[in-house]
Amino acid sequence: MKFAVVGKDTRKTESELLGTGFVKDFEKPDVVFSVGGDGTILFSEYKYPCVPKVAIRKSRICKKCVFDAGDLKKIMGALKKEKYSVTEYLKLESLIYGKTLYALNEIQVHNASPAKAIRFSVSVNGKVIEKEVIGDGVVVSTPYGSGAYYYSIGGGAFEKGIGIGFNNPHARIKNRVVPENSVVEIQLLRGQAIALCDNSDDVVILQENKAIQIKKSINAARFVRI
Predict the structure, then answer these.
(1) Do residues 150 and 212 share a domain?
(2) Same domain, 100 and 69
(3) How much is the pLDDT for 11?
(4) Is the same domain home to 19 and 109?
(5) Is position 60 within any domain?
(6) Which site in 55, 56, 62, 104 is 20 to 30 Å from 189, CA atoms measured?
(7) Which is it for strands 118-124 and 203-206: parallel, antiparallel or unpaired?
(8) 181/178 Cα distance (integer angstroms)
(9) Range of the domain at 68
(10) Which of 83, 100, 124 is the endpoint of a domain?
């Protein structure tokens, strides 16, 4: 089995895997070991999208880590004997000006300047749900990401669907969870804004009066379970 390791103290993990039937391949791995915290998981999915991940905790903050560092031998044995399952998680995608953003946690529209609010509208499947919002932006979240940034702006964790959360709106607006096959459209009405996903450095500058669509991706994130 070909593997890659992403995160903290990768040499130690690599050395334990090598020589036991596992082969290092950072180009086309069969499985990726994410060693660190929640941010490492997001980065590993960004670097190796859709490849099965083994999330190993090596950080104080890792709500999504399934395994601890001491579980490595058990994991190796299960992978060799094919006694494991793969759980899939919904991802989001948005094609913006020729560039596609993919997200395991969320895609958000955010004000470019912290000192200046933006105005935007939000539609779901062509129906306007918020005609004009003034605030810092909007977060469109997966169930996987519902306990992260979406949660911090007042959304509750959910297990199915797509969450729409409003970031510091001028008036109270209830966050929503819509069916996972919904198409969420955000139109920037006024101000300077950017679109970004998860903790990626990929940022797209949005144009006024232009709309972007966010929807379920055909590709899913995949995680190993034993």
Answers:
(1) yes
(2) no
(3) 85
(4) no
(5) yes
(6) 104
(7) unpaired
(8) 8
(9) 2-83
(10) 83
Which residue among 51, 83, 115 closes a domain? 83
Instruction: State the CATH number of the domain containing residue 203.
Output: 2.60.200.30
136 a catalytic residue: no
Is the pTM of the predicted complex or chain greater than 0.90? yes
In the set 38, 68, 198, 201, the catalytic residue is 38
> In whole angstroms, how large is the CA radius of gyration of the chain?
19
**The predicted structure's pLDDT at residue 54:** 96
Q: Domain check: are 77 and 166 in the same one?
A: no
**For residue 10, what pLDDT is reported?**
84
Query: Average pLDDT over the chain, rounded to whole?
Result: 93
